[in-house]
Each structure stands twice: as C-alpha cells, then as structure tokens.
User: Fold these one by one.
Assistant:
Number 1:
Amino acid sequence: MANINPPDGGGSDAEHLNVRHRVARPPKEGLAKDIKSGIEEMFFHDAPLRDFKDQTASKKALLGIQAVFPIIGWAREYNLKKLRGDLISGLTIASLCIPQDIGYAKLANLDPKYGLYSSFVPPLVYAGMGSSRDIAIGPVAVVSLLIGTLCRAVIDPVDSPAEYLRLVFTATFFAGIFEAGLGFLRLGFLIDFLSHAAVVGFMGGAAITIALQQLKGFLGIKKFTKKTDVVSVMHSVFKAAHHGWNWQTILIGASFLTFILVAKFIGKKNRKLFWVPAIAPLISVIVSTFFVFITRADKQGVQIVKHIDQGINPISIGKIYFSGKYLTEGVRIGGIAGMVALTEAVAIGRTFAAMKDYQIDGNKEMIALGTMNVVGSFTSCYITTGSFSRSAVNYMAGCQTAVSNIVMAVVVALTLEFITPLFKYTPNAILAAIIISAVLGLIDIDAAVLIWKIDKLDFVACMGAFFGVIFISVEIGLLISVVISFAKILLQVTRPRTTILGKVPRTNVYRNTLQYPEALKIPGIMIIRVDSAIYFSNSNYIRERALRWLREEDEEAKAADMPAIKFVIIEMSPVTDIDTSGIHSLEELHKSLEKNQIRLILANPGPVVTEKLHVSKFAEEIGDENIFLSVGDAVAFCSPKLAEQQA
Amino acid sequence: MANINPPDGGGSDAEHLNVRHRVARPPKEGLAKDIKSGIEEMFFHDAPLRDFKDQTASKKALLGIQAVFPIIGWAREYNLKKLRGDLISGLTIASLCIPQDIGYAKLANLDPKYGLYSSFVPPLVYAGMGSSRDIAIGPVAVVSLLIGTLCRAVIDPVDSPAEYLRLVFTATFFAGIFEAGLGFLRLGFLIDFLSHAAVVGFMGGAAITIALQQLKGFLGIKKFTKKTDVVSVMHSVFKAAHHGWNWQTILIGASFLTFILVAKFIGKKNRKLFWVPAIAPLISVIVSTFFVFITRADKQGVQIVKHIDQGINPISIGKIYFSGKYLTEGVRIGGIAGMVALTEAVAIGRTFAAMKDYQIDGNKEMIALGTMNVVGSFTSCYITTGSFSRSAVNYMAGCQTAVSNIVMAVVVALTLEFITPLFKYTPNAILAAIIISAVLGLIDIDAAVLIWKIDKLDFVACMGAFFGVIFISVEIGLLISVVISFAKILLQVTRPRTTILGKVPRTNVYRNTLQYPEALKIPGIMIIRVDSAIYFSNSNYIRERALRWLREEDEEAKAADMPAIKFVIIEMSPVTDIDTSGIHSLEELHKSLEKNQIRLILANPGPVVTEKLHVSKFAEEIGDENIFLSVGDAVAFCSPKLAEQQA
C-alpha cells in the first residue's frame, strides 16, 4: 500500500530510533496457493487472461477470437494514412524478397518457385494471427541452408527430387507443429535458453558458410562439393581455378555485387535513401537478365535460372509423410529448423517492438508462426520465419501494420502468375551476389566486440558456435551453441559469488570491500554476502567457501595483530530461496563454527527463506535472536559482546 | 583491511552526513587475471595447493605423496588409544558386513564369495588413500541392485555366468576410472547436480525394490520374476501363494527378522548398546545355520547357501573386457553405477566429517574411491563404495581412523580363508531378513516430510524418483531424478524473483513489502529488487516482469488516488552478474520507460555489473547520475524532484 508520508530527504540514514526490528515471517499461504503462484509465474507471468476479467460472455468470446486473430482488433482502427505506409513498405520488401527467395530456395536444394510460394501463403497467415507490426515473413538464408543440409543428409535431392521435396514439406509441417505447440503449451521461454552470444556466433558462421556456398554460382563452377565446411569449399574452389572458373560469370557477378554493396552503403549513410539498397537487387536482376538475353552470354557458359513454373502455390498436403521411415527424420529436422526459425523470428519481433514500444506476446507469436508453417506445408511452402534484413527495410520504409506483409504477398502472387517466365535469363551469379550481400548483414562484428568486452566466457561461446559452423557443419555449430549455453547456466548456479562486506565510512551501509576499498572491515566480525539462492547445486560450495573466507580473514587478522573472528554474519538479502540441501549446509556450517566458538548470525533473510528456516527448525537451532533485519543491526548487536570478550 | 574504529553501536543508522557516495568501479583487472580467477573458483576453490606454498623441494615432495596417501600423515600420530577404538569398531563392522556381503552379492547376481572379496581389497586401498575417518567401505545394496539389473539386461547371468562376471569386472573397472577421473580433473562438483530430494526418493525406492526382491528368499519361492517393478514382483509372489511358499522358510525368516528388528530398536533406544543391532545379523546367521544343520531343514525345502569357495581374492585383471562389444556396455554401466556409488560415498563422507568437524577434500576422495574400484576390478571385486548403515555403526562404535577398515578387511580375509565352509547350511531366508532390515534404514521418511515442508517442488522430485524406481525400474528412477534435478536448476535461472520494496518505518532500510507489511511504498516511486544475475536465460522475463509490476503498481496508485509513478528504482545488490542479453534487456526497459516519461534509476550495482554497465556504455546512456550507492540515496534524490513535478 502506498502512503503519503514524505520519505526522509537529504540522503540521511537517520531515524533508526534504537528499535530492534524483528525479521518477519510472511503471512502463511496455503499449499494450493503456493503451487498456483509458482505455476503462474512459470507459465503465465504475462497474465494473458487479465483482459478477460469482469467481461460479459459475448465480450469474452470476441476477445478470445481477437486473441487468436489480432487483425480483428487493429483492422477497425485502420486508416488511409497507415495504408500509405504499408503500401510503400510492402512494395519495397516485395522487390527485395523476390530475388532473395529464388536464391534461398537454391540453398534448400529446391526449385526457385518454392521460394516464391513461401513468400505468398505464410505472410498472409501471419498478417491475420501475428502481433508484430514490423516483421517481414518469408524464407531466410540460415534456415534454408539448415533445412537443405539436414534433408540432403537423408535423401539426395538430385537422385530423388520428389522424395526430397516430400521430406522438406514434412519437416516444414512438424516445424510448424513444434512452434505452435511450444506457444500453446506456454513453453515459449525455452527459446531463451539459446544465449545471445551463441546466436551471434552461429549466425555469423552460417552467414560465412552461405557466402562461401555462393562461390559456386559466383565463379560459375560446375563441380562443387556438397559439404559446407570452409576447408572442403575452398578445396573445391581452387581445384576448379584453372578451367572451372568462368570469367564472364565473374565479371557479371562482381559488377553487380559492387553495385549492390554501393547501394547498401548509400542507404546506410543517408537513412532517407533506405529504398536504394532495397530495390538494388531487383534492378540488378532486371538489368542483368536483359543483358544476358541480348548478349546470349548463357552460350558462353554463364549459368542462368532457365525456367520457373507459372502459377501460384499448388496444394501439397498429400505429399507430407505421416508414416514410414521418413516420418521420424521429418520430425527431427522440423524440430531443429523450427527452433532456429523461432529464435530468429522472436528476436526480430522483440527488437522492433522495443523500438516502437509495443508489447509482443511471445507465446501467441509462436502459435502464429507455427500455424503459418503448417498451412505453408499444405501449400507447397518450405519453412519460413521473420527475416532480419527485410524486417529492417520494412521498418525503415515506414510500415504501420502487418498489411505490408499482405501487400508483399500479393505482389509475389502476381509475379508467380505473370512474370516468372521473364526470369529465364537471370544469371545465377546475380542471385549469388544478392545472397552474399544479404548474409553479410548477419555478421555482427560490433556485437562480437561488445560480447568480448562484457563477458569473456560469452565470447568463447560465440566463437565456439562460429568456428563450429564454419569448420565442421551447421548442425555441429548449433549443437555447440546449445551445449555452451547450458554449460553457462550450470556454471552460474554451481559457483555463486560470495563477498566480504565492510562498512562504508560515514554511513551505515555495508558493501563489497573489493569494490569499495574504503569500506572498512570490523575487527572480530566477518560479514559475508552470498549472492544466490542456496540450492543443492551450490550448497556445498557455499559452505566450503565460507569456511575458506574465515580461514583467510583469520590469517589476515593474525598478521595484522587483530582479534580473531568471533562472529560470522551472513547477509542473506540476495538469497531468494533455500532447499533442504541448503539448510543442511547451513547446519553443517553452524556446527563447524560452534566447534570454534564462533557465532553464526543471519541478516535479512527474505520471506521464503525465513519461512523455511523456521519450518526446518534451523531458526530454533541457531536461536531466533541471531537473525537480524539488517547487517547494521547485527553489527550493533555483536560489537558490545566483542568488547566484553576482549575485556 | 581491518580497522580499529569501533562500529557505531546501538542500532543507529546515523552519520550519513549528506555525502553522496559514488558507485565505485572496481580496480581494473587484466584479462589473464580475470580468466585465472574464474578457473580457480570453478576448479580450485578449495585452494588445494595452499600447503605447498613457501616450502622446500623435499618438503613439497613429501607433501605431494602425503596428499595422495593421507595415511602417511596420520599414521605418525597413531597411538594405542586410537587403536582400541578402531579395533572395536572394525570388529563390529566386520560382523555386520559378512552376512550383508553374502546377501548383496546375490542382488548383483554373483556368487556370495564376490561380496566377501569386495570387503577385503577395496577397504585396504581406501585406508591408504581416503580422507574420511568414519566411512565403512564395501558392497552396498543399491549399487549391487543397480549393477545386477544393468548387467543382466546385457548378459544372462544363468546362461553365461563367465561372461556375466567379466562384464561386472569391466563395469567395476570403468566405474573406478570414472570416479578417479572426475576427481583428477577436479570435476567433483558434478555430483552436486543430483539434488538431495532426488537422492532421498531414489534411495527409498531402491530400498523398497530390494526388500521386495527378498520376498523370493524370505518366502522360499523358486520361480520368481526377473523384473524389479512392484507389479511384476507382487504378481510373482501371489502366483506362488498356493504351493510355492515354504512355511518352514517363512518361519525361520520371520523369527530372525523379528530378532534383528528388536535388536535394532534396542540399539536406537540406548545408544550405548549400539553393538546389539550390529552383531544381531551375525548371531542370526550362526544360530540359524546351526539350527538347519541339526534339523536338516534343507530337506524340507528350506533353501541354503550350499557352498562358498575358500581362499582370498584371485587375480581377475585378465577378465576385464578391454575390447569387443561388451566394452561399451561396461563403460556405460560403470559410468552409471560409479556416479551412484560416488554420490553415496561423498554424502556419507561429508555427513560424518561435519559431525566430527574435519575437512574432506571431495576431489581427493573421488580419486581414492576410484583407485579402490580399479584395484578391486583386478582382484575379483565388484563395485564398492561407502555404506550408510555400516558407516553409522562404525561411527557409533568409536572408530578413530581408517584403521577400522583395515581391521574389517583382515577379519573378512580370515573368514574367506578359514570359515566359509561353515556357511554351507546358512538358510537364504536369513540373508533375506538381514538385507530387509539393512535397507529399511535407507527409507528416510523424516527427510521426505522435511522436504515436503520446505519445498513442494523438491517433494515432487523426491516422489518422482521414488515411484519411478518402484513402478518402472532402477534406471528409470535414476533418470527421473537426474532430469528433475536439472529441470529445477533451469527453473531457478529462468524465473528469478522480483520484489517490490518499501521503507521500514523509522529506519532507512527498504524491504520486501510482502514480507514486511508495515514497510511503506513511496508515492510516485517504484522500487523493485531483482534477485538474480541477469543472464540470457532470464533477461526477457525480468524486463517483462518489471513492466508488469509497473502496470500493477500504477493501477493501484490510480485506484488510491495517488500520483502516477515517475521513478523506477532497481535495487541491483543481488544482481551479481549481467551478460550482453541482460544489458540489452535493460536498454529496452530504459527505452520503454523513457517513452512514458519515467526515469530509470539503478541502486548499488556490484563490481562486475558496474564494470559492464560502463563497458557497454549503458551507464552513459542512462546517465551516471542515475546510479546510486543505495536505495536510500536514490529515494532521497527522487523525492524533491517529485515534489517539484507535482507543484
């Protein structure tokens, strides 16, 4: 409850009128309530049903439908001004996505048309169900590479293209089921277990791997390794150096890559010219296609796209493997690719939501992304997610709502219906150049530098994932990221920090003596702060560390001719919880100290810990009078006793 | 550094003389030092080499040998008084272990002699290398059952006893390698990942499973299931009820079980009579053997031990599989059984060390346990560890050093050499009764009740392991324990507590308003404490939770007609570390608050966090003047501003 008393001003710590405050036991809560609040915090910490409270049944039903289809909510407030922004941004991302889609489909070992299909249906589904206003949906480079690599390991796409395609649809279906399932079961927090550092490393490594793969198209090499590691790829490239490289191809690719990169540079320098890098790829495609068509450079060995089927997505529901040996493979690949796709989409959603200050419900978002992939797998799409590069363009082009995705989808559909034959003479080198320029944006050197500065261990995780992807394979890189992320969590819980506190002069504040060298230790008293919940995973460490601190401080005191330590005060503020192992450790610590005539004192245990200290009878064991509200109180209690003992 | 100024007495918080204390950045440490201290805390937190400092080379060598063989250290101080204690306790545990060994060997599907072998060599090795003074080494029930179950799944012990035996030795060898390896690589902390609650549940379940298995011997059933789950066992028991039960067997078993349990009860009531329950099993064996020998009850269907080979351990080094298909199985089984054995031994070691207040070096202890199993596997022993029941008897009988293990080993060796033929007529029912009474002690109902009181989630883990063992199998129960233990760790790091603080009246102390209902919130200011390091696994949760607190507090303020919140103070004391994801989250929180004209203020960030806030430029972003030494300082700063705004 708030109150109106003004807080004491002027930074004074006064008014502690010799009143001894007891450490309160919180009001007792029932077991059911206890469990309920635990589950709520775990799965429903965002209180998803708060809007449903105190509403009529019909209103509740409407809110329910709106929860699944946010479009119903915002469509009513839609206006021409918003449409203008969405139209411009939709057209911009459409011009960017068409050439990217064709290239990304190749990364997944699919015909170019599947890339375009995937930019038609999924964005429409997302527009109806998603809650991000800025994300641009479609195939992305890393997930395309991942699904391409994983599926090729099972079925050869050249020998059995039909089966390969079916496997891709199966994986897409299960990726969708997996994503939607996580959201539905409110397990969205699981993706937080992939650390930022590992993701940065993985993305960077994947970007370089993808760029290297493009050397095939860029240099016009015909025989190329199927492996993705840098050693195999460079070997392929240099083996083909003498007669496998096609200079015409290189010339075309290099000129347009330069053009695209210059356009990117212009866009970076002047944010108003954001459309320059956005349409540069499409212009490159048009110009180069026209150029090849006139010069018939394809007869000189310049490889071209050749043929893209006309017409929008055919139904593919019958192609999904719901039984047989490829079912489990599909589930496995779908799970991995779905997780990566989810990580990317959620990261994008959060970033832009924070920039424009609106909320995204992670679990709802996952249901939308999952549904979009399930529907996609029924309509000849492969796995899609939010694209970093296109979402950024979408944002800069001034998109207002998910309508920009609808605009993009319509443009892609029109392209499929009418324009695809014109892509016949598009040189592969241009697609390679477009992909290279796109994935370069995934290499986030600034982030890696920041990680290095902030946390060396994080940097190791980042580099582990990076080199894992580059030198071994995408899956191994991903595995390394996951393992390192988990190892970091385990490290965090087994070795919590403990610090020795001292009194900051002229205050009653006790602080880390390493951080505040002016903070003074009090002779005969050791104040130690444990900076973590005390659980089975760290309870032994904490006990042993406390005894080691005691030994060290005692030696120091002896060397400085100070009285030996007679009181150990444990500052428990940061100890949010304790389990049976933790209580055992405290008991053992208490016994060890007692044997040496040292008194154990606890300062400021929190509500949960206080309750458990009492339930376990440990509070009785050390005596209620040895538990204090604050370190200051505890020291005030010990000091006269110390003086007595020394007298 | 300690200083001699007396601390301010009388519980007053005075003297904070309007000095604004800046939050200090800790002295910069080099990267190498940073990494070094991280590694030290992880692997060498017990400073194992501190005794080696400043010593001469020869002294160092001696200390090194002594570190591996602690016996060299304490043997010099050994005296007759200690010998007396060790002799009594050694004889007591020998009398207890001989009948137990014979029974436990059967749990492992081995001949009784292997149980006795295992109580001869390993205790001798441990006596030389171990650092616990109270642990009693030998085969134990749970590990015997575990290795029996796991090995039988690979090789049938009845069809191919020789191969089965070889597999057991192989598993023992690798269990030893595994244990010693963990200790040698200083990875001993890994066993802390098995939570106390899970161990209690697992042990209780295993005890009941073992007791149920004894119904075969106890009821004299000949055809018995090989499964260990309660349903299969009870089915076997009742199917045999009509003509498979042997009343003579039941009579003998029941009488002696009653005798042993009464003896146990007497020992519990009067601690001086600790030897009564300790020798009751041996007496039962002697009396019942004599009884069967006279009455020739074995001709009435009472099953007897029949024959135990005479002589001490033969060499078995040649029987270990170092190649072939059973090698990997041996490694796997050894790994699992080794982990369980280690958990038991370390728990025992720690318990008694705390009772007598001496230190045990967990890593060294593991090397000793591992070596003892490796040597054991060379000398026809199966996997051994510390026994709960025998260690307790050892302790109560007044053991002083590991010499009691040597005494026990000698007695066992003499038994093997001279007495084994006398066991011929020992009825199996007696062994069953002894095992039942021994494993009953593993069912720790008090611990389960305490776990229930302290932590409901821990109790779920405990019951999960318990019912997993009883209704499915030992391995599944173990798996459940491990999974739940890890899930709890993950839960702990993803959903840290956040609390709203208020001012405790007449102090300048800010505390959890739920724990201290008298603590007052300050109008216009929300003070929130984050009780955990901010890492990738929880950074999003913390940001969202903070925004939710803000929403809730604002609604409450509005309802109470209070001013809206203009300052959010985050109390950072418990935030021991932050990573890049955490900094991102703070940035996003800062942006969200800024959009609503709310000022973000940090109070008392620790050394590591302060450093990282500066390195990442976040400190600049929110402004150095918004970081305070304490919540009190921060509130004192905000209050006048609030008054201004409202004026």
Number 2:
Amino acid sequence: MTSPTFEPRHAGFDQRTRESFAHQSAMRTLGATLASVAPGRVEITLPWAEPLTQQHGFLHAGMVATALDSACGYAGFTLMALEAAVLTIEFKINLLAPAQGESFRMVGTVIKPGRTVTVCEGHAYAIDGGREKLIATMGCTLMAVVGRDNIQG
Amino acid sequence: MTSPTFEPRHAGFDQRTRESFAHQSAMRTLGATLASVAPGRVEITLPWAEPLTQQHGFLHAGMVATALDSACGYAGFTLMALEAAVLTIEFKINLLAPAQGESFRMVGTVIKPGRTVTVCEGHAYAIDGGREKLIATMGCTLMAVVGRDNIQG
Amino acid sequence: MTSPTFEPRHAGFDQRTRESFAHQSAMRTLGATLASVAPGRVEITLPWAEPLTQQHGFLHAGMVATALDSACGYAGFTLMALEAAVLTIEFKINLLAPAQGESFRMVGTVIKPGRTVTVCEGHAYAIDGGREKLIATMGCTLMAVVGRDNIQG
Amino acid sequence: MTSPTFEPRHAGFDQRTRESFAHQSAMRTLGATLASVAPGRVEITLPWAEPLTQQHGFLHAGMVATALDSACGYAGFTLMALEAAVLTIEFKINLLAPAQGESFRMVGTVIKPGRTVTVCEGHAYAIDGGREKLIATMGCTLMAVVGRDNIQG
C-alpha cells in the first residue's frame, strides 16, 4: 500500500516536533535520535544498549514500544494544530522477532489524521551487519489535547 | 470478576522468576522492584523518575508498558514448564490517565494459561499522597519457548 | 478488581440505549438480546446459531467480537451526553477458548468514561449445561460524536 | 513498505483454503466471496447489506472485523502445514471511517509466518461510486493447531 501524503497545518511542525522530542527524557534514556521529521511521518533511531535489555539480551519489548510510540506520536503531532498537545490513547504492538541487532530504526506513519483522534502505524526494524529486518509493528491511537494547562507540546 | 487461582507447575517458580527479573537490565533502568510473585500473578513497583518521562513530565507510555509487560510476562512465566523461556507475542495498552504520581504499581495476572500460548492482563496504578488510581490496562499474549539455545529463562 | 460505579448523565440513558440497540440490524442477525442496561455496564445474550459459525462449528471470532463491541459500545453510551452518538475507534479481542456452547453472554463495562473518549472492557462467556466459561476478553475505545447529521444515537 | 512474498508449504493451499471458506457459515451470512487466494494473501469482498448494519446504517464494526479476521486467518492458512487447522489468538481493529459504501474489500496479508504463531495485517476498503477508501486496519495473531480432533481445516 502506498503511504498517503499529508499537508502540515502550520509551518512550525518540524521545529515544534524537535523541541518536544528534546523534552522527552525517556528518549535520552533510550539514546534515541530524531532521524527524520516529515508531515505525517517520523523516524527515530537508537543503538542497542545493555540497560534496555530483557533477560535474553534482546531489547525489552517495552523499550521497542517506547521508541515506536514516540515515532507514532510525533508523526501525528506534525499534523496537529499549533495549540494542540499530543497524548497516546492506546497502542498495540506485535513482536515479530527478537529485538537483536546493532541498532534499530522506528518509523511512525499517520494513516488517518483527525481533529481530535489520529491513527498511526509503526514499524520497527533491527539493523545488523548492514541488513534490516522488520521486528515489530504497532497500531496507535492519539488524541489532540487543547486547553489543559499542564499538557503542552 | 474474581481472579482465577492457579497451580504452579513446579516448586521453583518463585526463585526462577526472581532470577530472570534480576537479569532484565531494563528493570534496573526503570528502578523497578519485583514486589510480589504468586502463581499466575506478579506485581512490580517503581518510583517516578525523571529519566522515564515524556514531554509533559508524566511517565512515558512506553515506560508504563515496559513495566506492565514484565509484570504480565512473569505472571505467565510462573505457570510455565521448567525448561520454558517466555517471549511476548503482542500486547495492547490503553492509557486511561496521565502517568503522574510518586510511584507506580503494575499488576500482571494470567487469565488463560496454555502449554504454548498464555494470555494475561495488566493493570497499572499511580500512587500519589497515599491514593491509588488506575492509569492503564494491558492485554498481553505470551509464548512459551522451548529448545532455543539463545533464549532461556 | 471491584468495578467502579457510575452516575448516568441523564435519566433517559436506559430508554435511549434500548432504542439504539433496536436499530442495530446486526443484533437481529445475531439473534442477540439486550439482557441488562445499567450506567456503565451492558449485557447482551445470544444463542448459538449455525449462520454465525466458522469452519469448526464454533461461533466465528468476528461474531463474538460483534456482540462484545455492542456490549462495550452501549456500556459507554449509557454515560454519554444526550446529544451524543457513539462510534467505536478501535477494539482488541483475545480469544481464550473456542466459542462453543448453547448460548453466550457478553458483558461490556466502562473502565474510564470521558467527554470525548471512553474506554471499556468486555468479557464473553459461553454457557453449556449450566456452566459458564470465559472465552474472550475485549479492550475497546469509543468516541462520543456530536453534531454530525448522519450519526445519531 | 513492499509486501514480502511467500512460498506455500504444499500445492493444495488454494483448494484447501477455498474448502474451509465454504464451511464458514458466517461468510454466507455476510454474503462474502473469496475473491483471491495467494500464498500469504487473501482477499474477501462483500456487498453492503442491511442485516449487517449498526444503528447509523453503516456496516457494524464487528461485521467488518468478521470479514477482516477471515481474510487474515486464511492468509495465514495458505502458509500452514497440510495437517494444521487455524485459530485466531487475538486481533485488534482500528476503525478509521464509517463503513459506508456499496461494497467492501478486505485484504489479509501475512507479515510473519511461523510454525506455531503467524502474524497478519488486514486492510478494509469501502467502495462507493468506483472509489476505494481505507476504512479499517487490523493486526491479527493466528495459531496453527495440530492434532485436535474437533478442529480441522
């Protein structure tokens, strides 16, 4: 399926996304980088790191989910109104293969933008010896939140 | 609904679960403690910590998911055969309220054990000023893996 | 976990739910009955019927989902404003056991009501020889829709 | 993302899938047709029909899920061993737009085949006046069941 393309709702979508990402301490804990930002599509990369692993030395499923959730959340955020903040309502992740590799690439894509509710999908790839392998898929529902003092960006 | 009660399949379920938890570096990164282990039910607690937060200062949804996934995974593990390792096939999380509080309690419960596939549910609570609030629910499917050299415990 | 109790937002919640249910042709196709309506909790029952089965003679997972989705949707609807219609944003179902039995009972319960977004969970039971067995669980997110001409009730 | 291509495990995958589909009474109730069968990919079509609707005249979300679940289930079935039957472990569906249209096309695709557990994704399209619109996506986990007397095909 060809991905749809989207128009951002304001020129500041890129800067605003990068600023919000910079405020996610969890992304620093993951060693994650915001690799690309486009309207409706965000890519996050991170290296394998021992503090993120489960008992077999693979990335913990929850850590894969953390990076994928941010990729999906920011993909949605790029299409939201300037005054909106983004919260995740729910996500579901299927782990297709153990998260082993030198590094990981997480791609979040909007499949249905909305004024209040936005639906995204995420794909996680493990990179090892130059080869990429799909290791997880995510379905994610976001809410645009407006006018709550403690929730901005 | 009353929770079902389960019989462990071997006497070592408690020790084995604690040993595997101790090997999850991700749990150390979360500052998480294995608070209780019973057949088919595991509880994990963790304090709020800045490195786990998203842009609004709440625990990142993925970090909530990480702790809940371990609670569910180990709940299932307590009922698995001695030679089995546990992997998460998929989980889905609904975020009911922002993850704000002094500390968090994650409860994983088996709702359907199986030789190969086990289904669990998880409940995440935020604790603030002595009050508990349900902030997230998880549905989780696990697989018992036997005979793969690189996957044990 | 004890279920929370809820206050309906208007006296007509019961009648309005029954009227909307009566307009769901899919419920007639299922032979389903609205067995009980309470604020935040709705119960639907249906007999086993051959036109609803999959290739092994069990109820098709999608038919179980259809009844559970209505139970969850109407559970949420009982707490929505008078002018709101209800739409399902997403649901996830875990099939715990084959849907075999003489009849089935579907219980939808609100776990987090909201002005726009409501989260419910559903439990499906098969009844056979007087015994009930949990066969499926659902997590479900609903949206209250206001002011769309073609979507009412 | 380009879809992966798969090799069937035996020559009879097509015939076996068609025979099993013919035994799903639920598909007759839906008026559904098995439009195409390929290794790892199955397409089901159905016309809009009043008995499948919810209160607004759209296809009931559960009926969309029923057809999508069969599309995903049979997509997985095409890659399973000859002696295996297929059961759905779980699925999650996101409803992106009301299911309104003259007819509907459901596409199930395997994203990760496995000896025991197979993961699929489904896409549902509404067709109206010659135009197609994506109305729902599904993530689905299947189990290959062998050696249970009452579960075949």
